[in-house]
């Protein structure tokens, strides 16, 4: 667990040990592509592993790339770098905070919190890098993001050139770092040169392909433009031919219309004469039909008025029935609510009474338990007093017995058996159990 405080006891030049160690590792890896990648929580971090077991891991975040540096054999990073800051750790304890170019700074209020989160994620990344299935990193993704990682390394190098304390620390440990990373740097440089050459060839091929595609697109566009011009010329010719055909058709239609008008005028005259006779007959029929329709309309109006009165009566009856039903429903709902409220109140009171009874029972049980404890304690105390009294009585009895018992004389040498003699008068008063 990362302690959320910066180590105040680090000497000024000692503060550069963490960032200088990370700089040396990145310098040894140069611009070689990642060794592999692993899936971790929806991301695929890039992983470099040195010959001696040191790790550098890079994962993308919404703010930019975050880089983790580990010494061989440790799952805790000694430095984590995000786009704004870098955090140096000493055995899991935040020791120093650097700005984006590598200058030691006073941490803000959230620095310890960020450092703790980074350290926790770093442990998970390390476990995944060691135990998860390894996969090859995409070369295209590395080409796109390589410049960002190298730009961060150049920013550190520029700051090192300007910072006297950092230069002093690096000069003091240069031989040690060179001996540690020399073989790694040579191998990575050779591999990076091969990859760079391949990347250059790929880029040249991509440029040639792009130029060919551009030329092909230009030719295609020229062909399409020529085809469009030819199609436009053909369309214009077709429009002209269509206009001529439409003009001829219009002239023919005009001539046919005039002939039709003449025929229609003659037919109209004859039709007017016939229409006059028909109109006279129709007028008579219309008068008869008007009388019949007036009678039918009057009868229909009377029936309609009767149907409206009957419908109004039915609607009034339905509305009255609906009002009665609504009143009944409201009354039933009010009764149900009152019953529910009464039941709820009864249940609440029953629960309250049960709770009171339970509380009383608990109090009584506690009082009984307390009384039993007091009785047991009193019994133990009485037993202890009785035992002490017995011990004291036994001690007193032994003292008394010792006071009334004379010391035994030394046993005489063996003699021939003698005749029994009368008991000594001075010993007649001794207790029978004195011996």
Provide a short characterization of the protein structure.
The protein has about 425 residues and is of the alpha+beta class. The chain has four helices and eight strands.
What would you note in describing this structure?
By secondary structure, this protein is α+β, with helices and mostly antiparallel strands. 69% of the residues lie in helices and 9% in strands. It has helices at residues 17-29, 111-131, 139-162, 164-404; strands at residues 36-37, 46-49, 55-61, 64-70, 77-81, 86-90, 93-98, 104-105. The protein has an 8-stranded antiparallel beta sheet with strand order 1-2-3-4-5-6-7-8, with helices on both faces. A hairpin with a 2-residue loop joins β6 and β7 (93-98). α1 (17-29) crosses α4 (164-404) and α3 crosses α4 (164-404).
What is the count of helical runs? 4
Helical fraction: 55-70%
| Bulk shape | flat
Biggest sheet details:
8 strands, antiparallel
**N-C termini distance:** 79 Å
